[in-house]
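Methods — Computational structure assignment.
A single polypeptide chain was analysed. Its primary sequence is given first, followed by the predicted tertiary structure written as structure tokens.
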Amino acid sequence: VQLAEYGGGSVQTGGSLRLSCVASGPMFINYKVGWFRQAPGKVREFVASVRWRDASTHYVDSVKGRFTISRDVTRNTAYLQMSDVKPDDAAVYYCTGGDDNKWSDWGQGTQVIVSS
């Protein structure tokens, strides 16, 4: 599966931004799409994931209540709605896909800049 991210850019602290991840190719029944992020000098960290089959979601604690991941099966697209954005959310955001054992597919990343 090939993944392509869209929607990165600059956002003010407290603002909102929506990232999109368009998937192309066959996705098996237990496929999940997730978002990771990596800030300069930090390790890449998991942000959120959604299972394609039933839309079940998981989030890292630091974004719970602020970010929402969703998917539109008709558009083969996953979204990450970011709200109440904080300076610590600034990073390159990567879309990824895989199953419960491995994230096997990765997009190129899209940068999110947070300004005060």
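Note: The CA atoms of residues 48 and 59 lie 4 Å apart.
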